[in-house]
């Protein structure tokens, strides 16, 4: 998955927040059609038993800077599924103790060939929105004591239905089922074996895909087409 999210449909995202039964909005939610990696994005997590929405830097690994923290030189806006259970990896502890959900209308994919972008697509939920499965981490400044929050989106193997859009990976789209979301956000659920089935590519809702000229202007250059949810 490439590094952009569509959280521009405020009505849809507000409805997702209501469905998630958030108890605390620590920050003002961010709404934007084009959020790229390293920018702030609104996430939902559970901390000390309270389900809350916070804004986090979309880059899991941070490093100290003159003003607090900045994205690390190590790419980490996505966390690969096959690294989640590798001890010492960036997402190992977070997968067990600080999973999160990123509510969105859609996401964007860029297909690269030999390091060059060949085409861009925007994908949105046909009805409602999407819940992307992610990880988050807190970083404490030793001098000021201030906390910075970071996050990543978990990526899975490529999905056959997206083969003409992106061939390397697909994002973890969580099924909009309360029992699954509740377990995913439960900070006391430290044995992630129950999530093994979620780490298989699956499209839980119908999508609409649109090829665009480039992410910054997102002008359509072909007919939109539907991608049906998996059974």
From TrEMBL:
Pfam families: SRAP
InterPro entries, per the entry: SRAP, SRAP-like
Protein name: Abasic site processing protein
Lineage, uppermost ranks: Bacteria, Pseudomonadati, Pseudomonadota, Gammaproteobacteria, Oceanospirillales
Family to which this protein belongs: Belongs to the SOS response-associated peptidase family.
DNA damage listed as a keyword: yes
GO molecular function: lyase activity; peptidase activity; single-stranded DNA binding
Gene3D superfamilies reported for this sequence: SOS response associated peptidase-like (3.90.1680.10)
Any single biological process term in GO: proteolysis
The enzyme's E.C. designation: 3.4.-.-
Membrane among keywords: no
Protein species of origin: Neptunomonas qingdaonensis
Keywords for this protein: Covalent protein-DNA linkage, DNA damage, DNA-binding, Hydrolase, Lyase, Protease
